[in-house]
Amino acid sequence: MVLSLDNKVLCRRKGKMKTGLVLEGGAMRGLFSAGIMDVMMEAGITPDGIIGVSAGAAFGCNYKSGQAGRAIRYNKRFAKDRRYCSLWSLWRSGDLFNAEFAYHIVPEKYDKFDNERFEKSPIEYYVVCTDVVTGKPVYKQLQRGGHEAYDWIRASASMPVASRVVEIDGMKLLDGGMSDSIPLAYFQSIGYERNMVILTQPIDYVKTPNRLMPLIRRSLRHYPNIITTMEHRHEMYNAQLAFIKKEVERGNTLAIYPKEKLPIGHISHKPEEMQRVYDIGRETGKGYLEEIVRFFDNPFQQTK
Asked: Which of 114, 131, 153, 212 has the highest Cβ tally under 10 A?
């Protein structure tokens, strides 16, 4: 649901402006975010809404379903299972993270996702995908769990070159981070004027042009708009970091991020490596917990 201007003014007058949680992607770096979120869940902190991109979408859904510990648990369990994430899966299915096994069999059989609790939770949950035809972001609120929700999350996390294009509702979709890596501005635009942002890179990180652009151009050669989007992605990302810093200074945004580069790549098959990144997230979350509690408890104050 998109709030109109009148909705936003009414919320301001009543002092009920919504507070959101914005989750960057980053593949296995997302376990840092999972650690922070688990600390928040254990402390009973409930955002009004969550928006996740890529791994942020895949791991953030566990917040709405109230399943602390689930993200690190299933990633460690299937870290070395070729059915989950492997070159074998890429060769056999066209997806590095196997679409059927990772996004349907695991949540339906091996580590069940709590669809009922997800649907009953008052938290509004959004994922970001990229339309490869237009090169623009697509924002989807997920109100129901189950098969369709899993496919939207899969689309949000489907990295270019390593994934097939996902077709949903007549759209052709891939990773949301291609077009809107840190959707703080979007969340603000629909009424979330106080937001906590979890980054998976240090705040002084500077993204450079993608070295895989030759492969991306070949893989997505039928979609010129998304190629243009990817050619400028580093500019978009760096501008978003600058925007976050300004919003932090304004007092309406709390940004939490690793102090240094996380000791994991986009892909990992080492459970101990995953645990280390998750633990860094937990340590970071505990260190910020009092500040997080104050941030979510503070009533909305209109900025000038």
From this structure: 153
Q: Which residues, 6+ apart, have CB-to-CB distance to 172 below 8 Å?
A: 131, 132, 133, 165, 166, 223
Q: Which of 139, 155, 157, 138 is nearest to 147 (CA)?
A: 155
Cβ neighbours of residue 213 closer than 8 Å, sequence gap 6 or more: 230, 231
Do residues 166 and 150 lie in contact, with contact meaning Cβ atoms separated by under 8 Å?
no
Q: Any idea what the Cα angle at residue 26 is, between residues 216 and 269, rounded to 5°?
A: 95
- Each residue of 46-76: pLDDT tens digit? 999 999 999 999 999 999 999 999 999 999 9
Asked if 50 and 20 touch (Cβ cutoff 8 Å), the reply is yes
Span 280-302, average pLDDT: 86
Question: What distance in Å separates the CA atoms of residue 226 and residue 236, rounded to the nearest whole number?
Answer: 14
Q: Supply the angle between the helices 233-250 and 224-231 in degrees, to the nearest 10.
A: 60
How big is the CA angle at 63 (ends 302 and 9), to the nearest 5 degrees? 20
Sign of CA dihedral 100, 103, 104, 109: positive
How far, in Å, are 184, 209, 222, 253, 256 from residue 248 at the CA level?
11, 26, 40, 5, 11
The torsion angle over the Cα atoms of residues 189, 195, 201 and 206, rounded to 10 degrees, is 50
List the structure tokens of 59.
């791991």
Q: Strand pairing of 124-131 and 137-141?
A: antiparallel
The pLDDT tens digits for 11-45 are 443 456 799 999 999 999 999 999 999 999 999 99
- Residue 172: CB atoms within 10 Å: 19
The β-bridge partners of 49 are: 20, 124
Could you give phi then psi for residue 128, rounded to 5 degrees?
Answer: -115, 130
Q: What is the pTM of this model?
A: 0.92
The per-residue pLDDT for 17 is 78
